[in-house]
Design brief:
Layout: H1 11-32, H2 37-60, H3 62-74
Helix pairs in contact: 1-2, 1-3, 2-3
């Protein structure tokens, strides 16, 4: 592919991606509201990890990427915007 990177992303992946990014942003706001200490640091590390996993999942696409997106989204399975078809 001449050095170009191809993201193997489907429409459903983009939908799950948007959902996960919103939830991560909400979690970041919550973590920043914690007054320092190990809980805040752990929360911010978790956010960074989730963002890296999200990029990795979109990068790889296919069954691996789809599964990883569903694993991440499952954390928020009780959220009103969670779609039933994302269930593990």
């Amino acid at each position: 592919m001449d050095g170009c990177v191809q993201l193997l992303v489907t429409a459903q992946h983009l939908e799950i991606d948007a959902f996960i990014r919103e939830r991560i942003s909400e979690d970041e706001v919550a973590a920043l509201g914690i007054a320092g200490g190990p809980e805040r640091a752990r929360g911010l590390r978790e956010i960074i990890s989730k963002r890296h996993i999200l990029v990795f999942a979109l990068w790889h696409g296919g069954l691996l990427g789809d599964s990883m997106l569903r694993f991440l989204a499952h954390v928020w399975a009780d959220h009103a915007d969670f779609a039933d078809e994302w269930t593990l």
